[in-house]
Amino acid sequence: MLVWNLLKRLAVKIGKTIYQIKHELLSDYLIQELKKPTIKFRAIVIL
Asked: Domain coordinates of the chain in residue numbers?
């Protein structure tokens, strides 16, 4: 709940909804991960 309260105060301060802020944060994170992943992925092909 601490994070949710922080988002609520931030939303009120900048005139956005909590959901807009949450979406922006998740969108920024996804873009960053797609550009430079922090977890390496290796496909395994079994024939």
From this structure: 2-35
- What distances in angstroms separate CA 42 from CA 12, 36, 45, one per listed residue? 43, 15, 10
Please give the helix or strand (H or E) that residue 24 lies within, else none: helix 18-35
Continuous segment of H or E residues that includes residue 37: none
Rounded CA separation 37/39 (Å): 5
The string of pLDDT tens digits covering residues 1-47 is 788 888 889 899 999 998 898 899 899 999 999 999 888 878 888 88
Residue 32: exposure state from Cβ atoms within 10 A (0-12, 13-18, ≥19): exposed
Backbone angles phi, psi at 11, to 5 degrees: -60, -45
